[in-house]
Amino acid sequence: MNSALFWQDLQLGHTVIPGSHVVHGEYVRLVMNYTCQYAFMQHMFSPCDTYCRSHWKMWLQSDAEDDNSKKHMSGSRGFNTRIGSMIRHRGLIANLSLRENLLLPFLYHAEPSRLQLALKELDGVADLIGISTALDEQAGERTSLTHALVSLGRCLLSRPEIIVAQEAHIGMPPEHLARFKEISMQALQQLDSGLLYLTGSLEEGSGLQYARTLIINSGAQATETGQGD
What we know:
Blueprint: E1 4-7, E2 10-12, E3 15-17, E4 20-23, E5 27-31, H1 34-45, H2 50-53, E6 58-61, E7 71-73, H3 77-80, E8 83-86, H4 98-107, H5 112-129, H6 144-158, E9 162-166, H7 174-191, E10 194-199, E11 212-215, E12 223-225
Parallel strand pairs: 5-10, 5-11, 8-9, 9-10
Antiparallel strand pairs: 1-4, 1-6, 2-3, 6-7, 11-12
Helix pairs in contact: 4-5, 4-6, 5-6, 6-7
């Protein structure tokens, strides 16, 4: 697989996000304020109709080295089934069980085979992220760790080509953070997906090694560095 997420220059309010990309298996960090992060994700996941297709500035391209390869515009069905997300504090719906929360992206999918595959792999994924004994408990109020683990579990089940993550570990106490780092490192290695990491600070503490870091200064020139910490 040789897929990549591309975006052209994006005007988000008074801030311009320079065009860049994330290749399958590569980790890239995008440092910008939370307003820009949510605007960036809105552009990524908003529906793309026939009219906007010619003006859209973000896409996933399979076999990226081939100019004639398939492009999936952001917001399209093909794009959404190939992009995973780990959005801060968006992992759980309180009145569903943890099992239902993990399966939620597949329950209403147009392809029943994706749900069947997720059901087949659910127990193994739950065991990897450490929630197997609580699968049938109602989610209710859970820690930031559980929210993050369920988001990670969905990615393990859907096997995305690129994952967009937004500081899922922020707010965890040290013991939870250490556990999440250990589990997420193992999961990311297993998935071998590309990762676009959205953060408000270079001191985000994920422990990941980045191929590139792009720093967006509101109203100023963006800067790009080499490998991150």
